[in-house]
Amino acid sequence: MRLGLFLTTLIGLAGASQISSAADATWIAVSTLENPACATQFGGPPGPTDWQVDIKGDTLTFMRQTTTKSSYTVDLKALQPDGSGRVVGKDDKNREFYVTFDPGSGARPFQVTNSITPCTTVFTPRT
Fold first, then answer.
1. Mean pLDDT score of the chain, rounded to an integer?
2. What is the model's pTM?
């Protein structure tokens, strides 16, 4: 009986880890500030910015499509089986930023906040 329960639990956990892995995807996202006042208060971009977004396995990389080509990468392993959750990354100055996903997979909106401002940037797939 215990062996059966153990195997059922083990198989369930293996299945859950497969579900939480995001399918590979690439898309262009438009970033906008949730509160436009943040753009002037914190020196952010004056308007929407295009970003190349790539999910490869459990890694999300998003890169600004401007001359500066800022790039950020986060590990998606901490997401829930339905694809939702919040993951933590570090910028080039070792400051934490947070990427939050609603349930889903592939190209979908996500929000980015950081440890130094109260502003939220929303990344939405370009249609």
1. 79
2. 0.75
